[in-house]
């Protein structure tokens, strides 16, 4: 599903390169569940953003579902993201001017769905996450944990083949966090490929593979049995 080869990402500071990603090679199969761990500044979120088409490497190749992503025009890349990927951001990225209902509905507007179909999908997600009573509120009226739950519901709205999650439980209490990880586990069993960045060893162990990052490089390992 995903193949990254010789991925480099750097910023030029004072005439010299400061590397964020160094010679990344990574393959992820359909149906995999990968946890990426590492200290702050190790390049975890940048790698996730490259996979999620939100950032572009300076060098390397990226194939997604057999297509050369970096050779695509921006419009096609955007369409690929909207069709196949869901993204749970650490800082929510909800649209302040839209209600909870409208935020969750946003990814569905790009699909060829009727208003009735969109309403049914959003209604199901509101119910599943226990936020029916919040549907007409705006993000500023929600707690951090509630905003994170809305962000996760929005990421799932379009039934993505690939779910990318950057610290998905970072703003949730332990009970909510456990529920979200159980949901991810179920989604993965249903065939959704998941890549999560996490500091939590407990959350990482939900993955089928754990990848450690240090100084922009990968160190591959497996969760203990």
UniProtKB/TrEMBL annotation:
Q: Which SMART domains match?
A: AAA
For whether the record's keyword set contains Hydrolase, the answer is: no
Q: Pfam families from the entry?
A: ABC_tran (PF00005)
For whether the record's keyword set contains Nucleotide-binding, the answer is yes
Q: Where is the ABC transporter domain?
A: 2-225
What top-level branch of life does the organism fall under? Bacteria
Entry keyword set: ATP-binding, Lipoprotein, Nucleotide-binding, Transport
Q: Name one GO molecular function term.
A: ATP binding
What is one GO cellular-component annotation here?
A: membrane protein complex
PROSITE patterns tied to this protein: ABC_TRANSPORTER_1, ABC_TRANSPORTER_2
Q: Which PANTHER family match?
A: ABC TRANSPORTER ATP-BINDING PROTEIN YTRE (PTHR24220:SF648), IMPORT ATP-BINDING PROTEIN (PTHR24220)
Family stated for the protein in its record:
Belongs to the ABC transporter superfamily. Macrolide exporter (TC 3.A.1.122) family.
Name of this protein: ABC-type lipoprotein export system ATPase subunit
